[in-house]
Design a protein that fits this description.
- By secondary structure, the chain is an alpha+beta fold.
- The chain has helices at residues 2-26, 32-45, 48-52, 125-134, 150-153, 158-170, and strands at residues 55-58, 61-64, 92-93, 99-102, 105-108, 182-183.
- It has one domain (31-74, 90-182).
- Strands 3-4-5-6 form a four-stranded antiparallel sheet, with no helix packed on it. A two-stranded antiparallel ribbon has the order 1-2.
- α2 crosses α6 and α4 (125-134) crosses α6 (158-170).
């Protein structure tokens, strides 16, 4: 009888432990450091630095100015009027690779750093995710302009978008007021 009770108790405890382990695995939420690392990886492979980090001239040609990483078009770089599209050249870009002109007007890469006044410092995670899902600033305002490939990023998983947001919140804030887009007049 004691052996039967002991066997039942061992089986019951084992079942509880297995259930607890399976529950822990199914609710395994990444740590903040894991999210930051994943976000840094996604930002790298998605090419965010290609347009949101200004280029500077280095010894071998243009290179990202990592002292202004992801800070967008430099506020001190006023752009002259955009060249008119000519023939097969339908759009053009600034030497910093942060300003672009085309049939849509002129767009400037935004400041993605967590600066509260000029970057995404006051954005909520929900606002960030909605912006990339909808292709609209703050998820509800004007459309995001070319060449931002938001329609590709809209297909990222919720986990990856949250990781990108967490990573962007972890980088150095850079005070840099990017100019507003100049929309082309509608014909």
């Amino acid at each position: 009888m004691k052996r039967t009770i002991t066997t039942i108790a061992v089986v019951a405890v084992s079942a509880v432990l297995v259930t607890m382990e399976l529950t822990a695995k199914s609710t395994n939420v990444p740590t903040k450091q894991q999210q930051i690392a994943r976000g840094e990886y996604v930002v790298t492979i998605a090419g965010c630095n290609d347009c949101h980090t200004p280029l500077k001239m280095g010894p071998k040609g243009p290179e990202p100015d990592m002292s202004r990483m992801l800070s967008g078009h430099p506020q001190q770089m006023a752009m002259p009027p955009a060249p008119k599209p000519n023939g097969p050249w339908l759009w053009s870009g600034a030497a910093t690779n942060t300003a672009f002109a085309g049939p849509w007007g002129v767009s400037f890469a935004r400041n993605l750093t967590p600066d509260n006044n000029t970057g995404i410092g006051i954005w909520s995670e929900e606002m960030f995710v909605n912006t990339l899902r909808s292709g609209r600033h703050w998820g509800v305002a004007r459309p995001i302009l070319p060449p931002m490939p938001w329609m590709n990023y809209a297909k990222m998983s919720d986990e990856d978008l949250r990781a990108v947001y967490t990573y962007l919140r972890s980088i150095k804030p850079v005070k840099n007021q990017v100019p507003d887009a100049i929309l082309a007049p509608h014909s």
